[in-house]
Fold this protein.
Amino acid sequence: MSLLPKPLAKLPIAPRSTKPSVLRHKLNIDCESINNHTNNTNEVPESPAHRHTRSYGRIMPKTSSLTQIALKPKPSIAITPSKALFDMYSKLSSTECKEISNYKELYYFGLDKKTKESSIKTDEDGYYKVIISDHLLFRYEILEELGQGSFGTVVKCKDHKTDETFAIKIMRKTQRILKFGRREVEVLNLFSKKINDANSCIVEKIDQFYFRDHLCIVFELLTINLYDFIKKDHFQGISQNLARRITTQVLIALKHSHELGIIHCDVKPENIVFKQENKSGIKLIDFGSTCTVRDKCYGYIQSRFYRAPEVILEYDYNVTIDIWSLGCVVVEMVTGWPLFAGDNEEEILQQIVNTIGQPPKEVLLKAKRGDKLNNENMHSGDRNTDYNEDAVPLDQLLEGFDLNLIDFVKRCIVWEKNTRITAEEGLMHPWIRGTHSS
């Protein structure tokens, strides 16, 4: 029996343009220091100044390591609802006066009464109305809005109970989104229960709670995501050594996930996030789109640039769709650009054909949407369309790179899913083990 509920139809994933998006935040991360640091898999030289860096749903506190060591947490002292009503009445809105009795301990009250009274807590699309310096659960102080997506809003918060800082995902107030949020909580709880590895490379869920009918998920605070890191270096690509260290950690995360029958379904640079500024440790995030090997979703899954052919063509898939995505990410890391960047699935398929050749007949026989491979332009070597100008065979694209890196990518980017390398096998691959061949 499956450990998880039946998967849901997937949320539409916002497409990313082929060229770098002008909507991405500017970042102040010392990419060169990380790229040039090859002797230690964990340590990277610190940047010359403390930086306030934005990323998709994660942000790094502006404190030095010495400050973090010297300053011990100073939790706030909790007060009771009755005392809060007596002492803090001027700060409480009419809504708060009614809901305050639902809490045994209160640590933080946020803004003045007038500001809170005039605000609308949920907009017409179900998003929570974020107000900086306001509270969540009379405990968390909202410090900054970090990002917003189809699922909801991510904010950076200070926990006044523990004096720690976290990232909190506030899910939209709709039944459909709520189910996705509950699923992510269940998956992360399963990981916490079943994975006995402090270095699992999977994002840590700290807590979850409901506030004004919004599901809120508390996560550890991370820093910049891989896409923004590559962007910071002007899409020149990162060093092969750094790419290897990142790939190793993603493989570790996928190994744990796949052993439990969980398919991530959205491995991409935006969901690979550095743990600390200017260090190479990463976490795999966003498990809201997962499914299981027993209960698969045949709707819209995986971001288009990283979508496996079996998903596009609609034939049976398994955990190796994550491996396909990882292979695409590896190429993007070292070249700076997505391997397959078509505007639609037909363009993606044509680029795949141009890069790795025609699919085996067995694949076509299994595919429900094999017609996608039968249009007049869909044949190997076609260069008559704009989206195929840069689609070249893999050996040509990666010419000059470590031969073991090329072999690793070839083991991931394979038409037949059962011939792809597994996460466990990937960890034993010569490139991952540091055996160089050129």
Observations:
- The chain has a mean pLDDT of 83.
